[in-house]
Design brief:
By secondary structure, the protein is α+β, with helices and mostly antiparallel strands. The chain has three domains: 27-60 and 335-365; 78-234 and 317-329, no CATH class; 239-314. It has helices at residues 2-12, 21-37, 39-59, 84-92, 107-114, 117-124, 138-145, 157-160, 175-190, 213-235, 237-270, 277-314, 337-364, and strands spanning 65-76, 127-131, 134-137, 192-196, 203-210, 316-322, 329-331. The strands form two sheets. Strands 1, 4, 5, 6 and 7 form a five-stranded antiparallel β-sheet that branches. Strands 2-3 form a two-stranded antiparallel sheet. A hairpin with a 6-residue loop joins strand 4 and strand 5. Mean pLDDT is 77; it is low at 1-11 and 78-101.
């Protein structure tokens, strides 16, 4: 009988690595009872989590953010040589082989160039339409609408009341003006980005996110316009220098040719009846000089025209694929840290109570 009972007992026992449903229910009941006894501790965790979340919500900026973008394509410029526009686009996005291109208008260089300090500063000092019949500098418009006065300049009354003067050369800015401009630049650069729209395309997207909708839309238009102007000036700088040189040469030749023709006409009028060889020699000399100067002058005129055509051919073409469209995408910042803090406090409290109960059980065993 004892042998049979022992066999039955062994048969009913589970292996050490398994837990019976009855034991699971018992443990759940024990944990429930432990929660009831430790409700104050659980409430403390939830209160602490809620308090931390409330502090985070209180310090979080609740203003909506308006996100706008412009998609454009950069083309044109026949002076690239080699593969022309295809080679230019391939080099712009690093698709060509060989060493990196030192041109600032290719690849990552162009991405940095668009948001560089000279470009952003030039854009900020442009005049824009702030209202129907009022123009102001972009930097003043940004100071008024961006919220920088209440954020970065909250404790500086001098900067809060500061305004830039139109038409002033940035090289003559005072220390205060440079400080204000640097503050605006550091903030607006963080709000502006440029990226390739797709790995297989040559389209670029200029994007910004600000607290004022019209400010964001205006900034994108002004920045792209400035990039196009500065890009064109730098791309055609050598051709423009040659154009100025040839225009000066053309004007100089025109003046010399005019004086020579006047001397020739005067000499002919004064010596119409002269048949002396020396007189004819002087007239031939003036005629020869006039012909030679005419050839040089017409060549200079043709060179000036060719250089002007080269400026048009070499000018980069900015094609806006998707302009800024209103209304911009609005992103609201609803406070949620308070609710999340309560939930996290509840979870941490449950974990703490469970670990404490497990520790007591081990110690009792």
């Amino acid at each position: 009988m004892e042998t049979i009972d022992s066999k039955k007992t062994d048969k009913n026992q589970l292996p050490p690595d398994q837990v019976s449903p009855k034991e699971v229910v018992n443990r759940v009941i024990l944990f429930k009872d432990q929660l009831i006894r430790s409700w104050k501790l659980l409430a403390i965790f939830m209160v602490i989590g809620g308090a931390i979340g409330f502090i985070i919500d209180f310090n979080t900026d609740k203003r909506p953010t308006y996100t706008g973008y412009i998609t454009f394509n950069l083309g044109g410029g026949s002076s690239q040589g080699g593969l022309g526009e295809l080679g230019n686009l391939a080099g712009m996005f690093g698709l060509g082989g060989g060493a990196p291109d030192a041109n600032i208008f290719t690849g990552e260089n162009f991405m940095y160039y668009v948001v560089s300090k000279p470009i952003i500063t030039r854009s900020l000092l442009k005049e824009v339409d702030t209202t129907a019949n009022h123009k102001d500098l972009m930097v003043n418009y940004y100071i008024n609408k961006s919220g920088i006065r209440d954020d970065e300049w909250e404790d500086d009354d001098t900067l809060r009341n500061f305004r830039f003067i139109r038409g002033k050369d940035p090289k003559t800015f005072t220390r205060l003006e440079n400080k204000a401009l640097d503050g605006v630049f550091n903030r607006i650069k963080g709000e502006t980005s440029i990226a390739q729209l797709d790995r297989k395309s040559s389209f670029l997207t200029l994007r910004t996110g600000m607290h004022a909708e019209m400010l964001a839309a205006t900034w994108l238009d002004v920045l792209l316009e400035t990039v196009q102007e500065d890009f064109t000036e730098k791309q055609n700088r050598k051709t423009r220098e040659m154009l100025v040189l040839m225009e000066n040469r053309r004007d100089s030749l025109g003046r010399v040719l005019g004086r020579n023709d006047s001397n020739l006409a005067r000499y002919i009028d004064q010596n119409q009846q002269v048949v002396v060889a020396e007189g004819q020699l002087q007239q031939s000399k003036l005629t020869r000089n006039s012909t030679f100067l005419q050839q040089l002058y017409y060549g200079a005129v043709q060179s000036v025209d060719n250089l002007k055509l080269s400026l048009i051919k070499e000018a980069p073409l900015f094609t806006i694929v998707e302009p800024v469209s209103l209304p911009l995408f609005k992103e609201t910042h609803e406070p949620f840290a308070f609710q999340a803090g309560i939930v996290m406090g509840l979870i941490l409290g449950l974990i703490f109570i469970f670990l404490r109960q497990t520790f007591y059980s081990i110690m009792q065993s």
